[in-house]
Amino acid sequence: MSEGNRTGHEGYNAISTPPTGEESMNKGYTASTRNTDQKKTSPEEYFRWAVFGITMLLLFIAAIQFYFSMQEVIGTWLEWQYVPLFKSMYNLVVIVVCVFIIKLFVFRKRA
């Protein structure tokens, strides 16, 4: 019977040192330290965030207007009996694209 088996530790023998509590708990990973220094934001950075916010708002408004314009185009160009079918297909495509975007940006894996 080997030394590792007599002590009850599989990875421990007479030559190596036993794992400490910290090493066995984090399994070799070291704790990452955060930088506690606060970075001061400049007026240029505030301006960039404001421009980004305004751009996102305009994009949101344009997307809503495009959605309702497409609904009107479907109603205008197609025969009345096909309008509900094409509207439902268009809404389904919008839902699939939105779910894909949410999957990309919200549920992405963090490295």
Automatic annotation (TrEMBL):
Keyword Transmembrane helix: yes
Segments crossing the lipid bilayer: 46-68, 88-107
Residue ranges of the region described as Disordered: 1-42
Keyword Transmembrane helix: yes
One Pfam entry name: DUF8060
Entry-linked InterPro entries: DUF8060
Record's keyword terms, sorted: Membrane, Transmembrane, Transmembrane helix
Domain DUF8060: 24-108
Annotated protein name in UniProt: DUF8060 domain-containing protein
UniProt organism field: Methanolobus halotolerans
Lineage: Archaea, Methanobacteriati, Methanobacteriota, Stenosarchaea group, Methanomicrobia
